[in-house]
């Protein structure tokens, strides 16, 4: 059984084809990223998965439950952290979490109270538990949204740009917590514009553009296919002509020129440095850059 | 069972939502009704009684109580839904596995709780100011419950339909207010010219006020069974329509 199974989903809003035959499966326990520019269809896809939007055709299943015909089980299996910060101004943090658990059929008992306490602790919200939602900062409200998505213990967690506009401390707290949930077997689906987060956290990535999935593979394969390690050097003299042919890129001018060489394996670094040594060209600065998801993203989007 | 807990939680949330601002949602409408009572009872004290043996003050109190109930039942569901839609927190109840029945019952029951609290408040103040007879407690309860549920359902329709507060205010000021004020709260329709009497009979709010008043005095402008029939039919139609809107996800799920 797949944690998420999306099959040939289409959704059209008047003149806009928001989802165009989207199919993807996410396995249980995966940490999966869904990337794409604004308007690519990521949030529409998540809304369709959550039952907030109805697909024109195709099917979506969460832990084997169809989101339309078996919506009760499908919704119990998924926790969504929305992109926008929304809250109910009438209630405290604890009340908000108790109500959310109740909507999912969890009666108030010691087990629920202790799970809410655990969530509050893990998201550094304990001292805000009895504060009204209006009194919380934007970052704190976002933490509550995360807690709300988790309060019914869903096996699948969807985070729709959870770190947009939040400080470093929250990001670190949030990712540490989400990683621990993933380690316990929760499936995570993440959308983000911070590509370094996706690169660090996710084992598999799908990229969307204009309602279609245009690339989907493991993070490692995508990086290897569209990006490369690069040795960058600045030299005290001009680059010899035979080495110019090996150079993949030149950046800057004069003595500030960076010469880029592709590195397929680390032995290539030593080989290039040896060639420079042989010609007695001193290196004034040197860097080795790792494959970069941002570069992959740009190449895939402009392919 | 899980659905029952979901419904109960939503009901509790909706009741707490208005109770946390009880001065605005319960005390203020009671005060408004008292002011109406003081002013109209004073101004109209010399006018002839609507029914034989019933003073104007006695006649006015049940009407005011019902008018307050109707307005507050409507306000509770409509304001809750429009606020949730506009602030976006409606998401919290759209993501869980709540059915359209859960939504309907929770919102309408919460509206009834608020309406009955307001009605009781007006009635308690009323019996301190005038001697109010109770001819049939059963009819009083039936109309109080039925009419507050009806306006709760109507409030849900308005809340779902409106996209902004301006539209909601228009619904309230141009439909609900005229219908309640022109329903015979302040007068018996027998005191109106024939044309206006006929027109009053197509106002469903008239039957709500008239039937409720029958429970107090055993006298009414039209048969209590007629009022009960019209009100019940209106309630069933509005409930069916509300449930249809909720099930189809009208303006909630795209």
Q: How many E-type strands of chain B?
A: 0
Main sheet overview of chain B: none
Q: Taking all residues together, what is the mean pLDDT of chain B?
A: 91
C-alpha geometry of chain A? elongated
Give the percentage of residues in beta strands of chain B. Answer: under 5%
N-to-C order of helices and strands of chain B: HHHHHHHHHH
Helix content of chain A: 25-40%
Weakly predicted, low-confidence segments of chain B: none
Percent of residues in helices of chain B: over 70%
- Average residue-wise pLDDT of chain A: 89
Q: Main sheet of chain A?
A: 6 strands, mixed
- The helix-and-strand class of chain B reads mainly alpha
Shape, principal axes of CA atoms of chain B = elongated
Q: What is the first-to-last residue Cα distance of chain A?
A: 33 Å
| % residues in beta strands of chain A | 25-35%
State the total count of DSSP E strands of chain A: 14
The gyration radius over C-alpha positions of chain A equals 24 Å
Radius of gyration of chain B: 18 Å
Describe the strand arrangement of the main beta sheet of chain A, using strand numbers. Answer: 6-7-8-3-9-10
| Low-pLDDT sequence parts of chain A | none
Provide an overview of this structure.
The complex is a heterodimer of chains A (303) and B (254). Chain A has 303 residues and is an alpha/beta fold. Chain A has helices at 42-50, 71-76, 93-103, 110-122, 138-150, 168-183, 195-201, 219-226, 241-244, 267-278, 293-301; strands spanning 4-13, 16-26, 31-35, 57-62, 65-66, 78-81, 156-160, 187-191, 204-209, 212-218, 229-235, 249-251, 258-263, 283-289. Chain A has a six-stranded mixed β-sheet with strand order 6-7-8-3-9-10, sandwiched between helices. In chain A, strands 2-1-4-5 form a four-stranded antiparallel β-sheet. In chain A, helix 3 packs parallel to helix 5. The longest helix of chain A is centred in the middle third of the chain and has 16 residues, at 168-183. Chain A is elongated, with a radius of gyration of 24 Å. The mean pLDDT of chain A is 89. By secondary structure, chain B is mostly helical. In chain B, helix 2 crosses helix 5, helix 3 (56-87) crosses helix 9 and helix 6 packs antiparallel against helix 9. Classes of the chains: A alpha/beta (303), B mainly alpha (254). The interface between A and B is medium-sized, with 32 and 30 residues.
């Amino acid at each position: 059984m797949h944690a998420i199974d999306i099959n040939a989903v289409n959704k059209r809003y008047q003149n806009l084809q928001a989802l165009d035959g989207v199919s993807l499966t996410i396995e249980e326990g995966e940490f999966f990223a869904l990337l794409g520019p604004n308007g690519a269809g990521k949030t529409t896809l998540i809304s369709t998965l959550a039952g907030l939007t109805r697909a024109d055709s195709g099917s979506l299943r969460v832990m084997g439950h169809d989101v339309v015909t078996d919506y009760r089980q499908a919704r119990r299996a998924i926790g969504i952290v929305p992109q926008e910060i929304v809250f109910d101004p009438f209630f405290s943090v604890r009340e908000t979490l108790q109500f959310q658990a109740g909507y999912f059929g969890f009666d108030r008992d010691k087990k629920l109270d202790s799970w809410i306490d655990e969530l509050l602790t893990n998201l550094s919200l304990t001292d805000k538990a009895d504060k009204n939602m209006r009194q919380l900062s934007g970052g704190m409200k976002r933490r509550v949204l995360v807690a709300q998505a988790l309060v019914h213990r869903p096996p699948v967690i969807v985070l729709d740009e959870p770190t947009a506009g939040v400080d470093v401390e929250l990001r670190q707290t949030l990712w540490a917590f989400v990683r621990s949930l993933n380690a316990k077997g929760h499936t995570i689906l993440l959308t983000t514009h911070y590509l370094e987060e996706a690169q660090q956290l996710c084992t598999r990535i799908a990229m969307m553009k204009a309602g279609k999935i245009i690339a989907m593979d493991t993070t490692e394969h995508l990086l290897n296919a569209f990006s490369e390690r690069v040795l960058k050097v600045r030299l005290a003299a001009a680059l010899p002509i035979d080495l110019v042919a090996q150079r993949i890129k030149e950046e800057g001018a004069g003595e500030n020129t960076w010469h880029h060489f592709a590195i397929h394996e680390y032995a290539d670094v030593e080989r290039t440095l040896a060639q420079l040594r042989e010609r007695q060209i001193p290196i004034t600065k040197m860097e080795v850059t790792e494959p970069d998801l941002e570069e992959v993203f740009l190449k895939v989007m402009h392919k | 069972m899980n659905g029952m807990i979901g419904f109960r939680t939503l009901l509790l949330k909706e009741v707490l939502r208005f109770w946390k601002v009880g001065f605005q949602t319960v005390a203020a409408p009671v005060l408004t009704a008292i002011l109406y009572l003081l002013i109209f009872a004073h101004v109209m004290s010399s006018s002839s009684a609507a029914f034989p043996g019933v003073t104007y003050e006695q006649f006015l109190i049940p009407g005011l109580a019902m008018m307050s109930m109707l307005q507050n039942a409507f306000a509770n569901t409509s304001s809750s839904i429009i606020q949730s839609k506009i602030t976006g927190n409606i998401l919290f109840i759209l993501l869980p596995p709540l059915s359209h029945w859960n939504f309907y019952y929770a919102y309408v029951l919460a509206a009834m709780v608020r309406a009955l609290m307001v009605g009781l408040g007006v009635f308690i103040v009323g019996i301190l100011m005038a001697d109010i007879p109770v001819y049939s407690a059963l009819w009083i309860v039936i109309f109080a419950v039925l009419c507050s549920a009806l306006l709760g359902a109507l409030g849900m329709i308005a809340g779902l339909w409106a996209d902004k507060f301006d539209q909601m205010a228009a619904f309230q000021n141009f439909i609900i207010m005229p219908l309640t004020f022109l329903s015979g709260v302040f007068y018996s329709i027998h005191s109106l010219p024939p044309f206006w009497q006929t027109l009053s009979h197509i106002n469903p709010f008239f039957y709500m006020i008239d039937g409720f008043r029958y429970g107090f005095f055993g006298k009414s402008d039209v048969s209590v069974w007629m009022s009960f029939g019209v009100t019940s039919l209106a309630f069933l139609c509005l409930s069916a329509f509300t449930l249809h809107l909720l099930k189809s996800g009208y303006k909630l799920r795209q």
